[in-house]
Specification:
mainly alpha; 4 helices
Length: about 100
């Protein structure tokens, strides 16, 4: 795991808190998002089966899965997955720009 990427994310969180203060919005999640989550999962699965999966597919699927959750522990687990995919995507971008 790249400590640099996690440090950048921590710095961004500090900027957000400095700008907006501590935020405590409602989650805004629930079963009404199940159709979108199912669609995102099917699109990701289809792209993977064709060898065409992208980080957009994967991240969209994870975000949509989080939107369905109402249980705080399960929502937290889904959001960790969202964050992990986002970090993986950042790391891929960093590898691409790194000199070979």
């Amino acid at each position: 795991m790249s400590a640099e990427v996690l440090a950048e994310i921590a710095a961004e969180r500090e900027r957000q808190d400095a700008k907006w203060g501590e935020q405590n919005h409602h989650d805004g999640t629930g079963p009404g998002y199940k159709t979108a989550a199912d669609s995102a999962r099917a699109e990701c699965d289809q792209a993977a089966a064709l060898g065409l999966v992208t980080y957009r597919h994967i991240l969209t699927e994870e975000v949509q899965e989080a939107f369905v959750e109402t249980d705080p522990a399960k929502l937290r687990a889904e959001l960790v997955q969202v964050a992990a995919v986002a970090v993986a995507w950042i790391q891929k971008l960093d590898r691409e720009k790194a000199p070979r």
